[in-house]
Amino acid sequence: MKKYILRFSSTLLTVAFQLAAAHLGIATTFNFSNTAPITINDNAAATPYPATINVSGFTARISDLNVTITGLSHTFPTDIGILLVGPGGQSVVLMDNTGGVNPIINVNIVFDDEAATGVPNPIIGSLASGTYRPTNNSPTDVFGAPAPGGPYGTALSVFDNTLPNGIWQLFVRDFSAGDSGLISGGFRVQVTTPEPTSILLLGLGLFTVAASLRRKTQRRLLR
């Protein structure tokens, strides 16, 4: 019976270790959203300015970050400038002076450094929903207080290896007179980290139980 318990604890210990070790290489993704509309005023800062998302509770640093703009409509998209500022003050222009000259309605854009292309600037047709790299075709544009001054980052990797805790700010403005728009569904920040999840915690729990059982069994065998 004692040998059976020892073999069982050894097996449990192995399974727990494999669960925990396997999960160490798996990143975990978290989504944080502010779905309140953002009004893009003509040749002015948007309302609100900025839109914000509060993130807390992380002990692991960012390994990848993507941003989604939901329900973007505008009568002249190339006027739009969108700036993301992280809790540590790092900033990146998601789009500016791009998107084309034809009106768009309810376009959803995911900004991802690993996307195949930047935000297109179509002359024929309109900007379509899709996943694009951050694209700034007017690096001298300044968003205005309370947004930070430039120069601004050009890639979301500026947030890598930083803690996501704190206030994320999205500054949107229209840089030319004559047109306006709306972000009807707000924005979302997608944070990827090696933060522990339930699978890893289960593995660690089994590891602790198995180690304790093994020690007790070994002590009994030595008596």
Structure description:
This protein is an alpha+beta fold and 223 residues long. The chain has two domains: 1-27 and 195-223; 28-193, Jelly Rolls (Sandwich), CATH 2.60.120.260. Helix content is 22%, strand content 31%. The strands form two sheets. Strands 1, 2, 4, 7, 8, 11 and 12 form a seven-stranded mixed beta sheet that branches. Strands 3-10-5-6-9 form a five-stranded mixed beta sheet, with no helix packed on it. Strand 5 and strand 6 (91-96) form a beta hairpin. The radius of gyration is 24 Å and the shape is globular. Residues 2-6, 8-24 and 197-204 have low confidence and may be disordered.
Order of helices and strands: HEEEEEEEEEEEEH
> Radius of gyration, Cα only, in angstroms?
24 Å
Mean pLDDT: 84
**What CATH architecture of the largest domain do you see?**
Sandwich
Helix content: 10-25%
- Form type: globular
CATH H-tier superfamily of the largest domain: Galactose-binding domain-like
Low-confidence stretches are 2-6, 8-24, 197-204
Strand content: 25-35%
| Oligomer class | single chain
Content-based structural category:
alpha+beta
Give the beta-strand count.
Answer: 12
Which secondary structure elements does this structure contain, and how are they paired or packed?
Elements: H1 2-24, E1 28-34, E2 38-40, E3 51-55, E4 64-74, E5 80-85, E6 91-96, E7 104-111, E8 130-132, E9 135-136, E10 166-174, E11 181-183, E12 187-193, H2 198-222
Parallel strand pairs: 6-9, 7-8
Antiparallel strand pairs: 1-12, 2-11, 3-10, 4-7, 4-11, 4-12, 5-6, 5-10
Helix pairs in contact: 1-2
